[in-house]
Amino acid sequence: MTKALEIWIGAYSAKNEVGITRAELLPETAELVKTAEYGGIENPSFLRMNKAGTRLFAVSETGEHIDVDGDKAEGGQLASFPIEADTRKLGPGQYHPTHGADPCHVTLAGAEDWLAVSNYSGASVMMYPIRPDTRPGPPSIRFRHTGSGPNAARQEGPHPHSVTFSPDGQYLFVADLGMDKIMVYTRGPEAHEWTASDAVSLEPGTGPRHLAFHPSGQAVYALNELDGTVTRFAYPEPGKLVRQETVSTLPASFTGENTCAEIAVSPDGRFVYASNRGHDSIAVFRLNEGTSELQASGHVSTRGKTPRNFSLSPDGQWLVAANQDSDSVILFKIEPQSGLPIFAGAELTVQRPVCVLIR
């Protein structure tokens, strides 16, 4: 019998509402089944898990929080939850301040010795060393961004939107929507040393949001939220991004408003997927086998409104999409030849889902 896949869903929620949902994907019957719901954390809008599956990390995307003394403090929080091995239940959370408003993305380095958080409204990135027991230590490094872009409504200042470690863990790439830049930070020779090393520009007004590495490690794809495009970068040497082509995530006939949200590369390196909020679809790109160049391949409706986030299963056979404004999480089966996600007939009702993590 094929083993069930574990799914964790983060949502925009009040502290007394369900914020994190655990579910299972049953591959043999193409079912999604809820197994647990958790409250007690406000707006857990992005989730990450360590490789061993023993700890879940979540950002609490808020402008202020209540500190350990019961006082209001500026900025959001990073939450860390132990996971019971047998029951898969979340244990009590440990919380750290992010020292910036609206943390919206969190990631672990491959060696799981560092964790990074981007503060969207706080114009900063926080880095936390990971202890041997898998818990984050107090934040020890803070990078501040300065700059703006031509979109007065969205680019009045810096907005670090995502944090992505290089495959070797020596570099941290930060997509800043407000600056139209990807900031590059480099690990130093000392244990707690990271420094700024590069700033890679995109076209003004693109608004880079999320990044995804090709499995080969030779290309990086940037999803641009504001102008609805994907930009390919060559990665010829560690830490070096070289801009290549930029392609639209939308069909030529679409004339409505749209912003992009999530991007992922298939585990076999043949396809790139990107979500459209407005067109409410997953855009599919076939990749040139030799160059990893983007070739538009089609669009699939997410069967709901505002697909903020989606996730691919580790085997590349399934895609689970979260429709924020229709309170739905939808299961798709990937057609292996075309790469197109095909609705698998399964749907979960989750209030304001904004992140999907598949283990």
TrEMBL record:
<dbReference type="InterPro" id="IPR019405">
    <property type="entry name" value="Lactonase_7-beta_prop"/>
</dbReference>
<dbReference type="Pfam" id="PF10282">
    <property type="entry name" value="Lactonase"/>
</dbReference>
<dbReference type="InterPro" id="IPR050282">
    <property type="entry name" value="Cycloisomerase_2"/>
</dbReference>
<dbReference type="InterPro" id="IPR011048">
    <property type="entry name" value="Haem_d1_sf"/>
</dbReference>
<dbReference type="InterPro" id="IPR015943">
    <property type="entry name" value="WD40/YVTN_repeat-like_dom_sf"/>
</dbReference>
<feature type="region of interest" description="Disordered">
    <location>
        <begin position="135"/>
        <end position="165"/>
    </location>
</feature>
<comment type="similarity">
    <text>Belongs to the cycloisomerase 2 family.</text>
</comment>
<protein>
    <submittedName>
        <fullName>Lactonase family protein</fullName>
    </submittedName>
</protein>
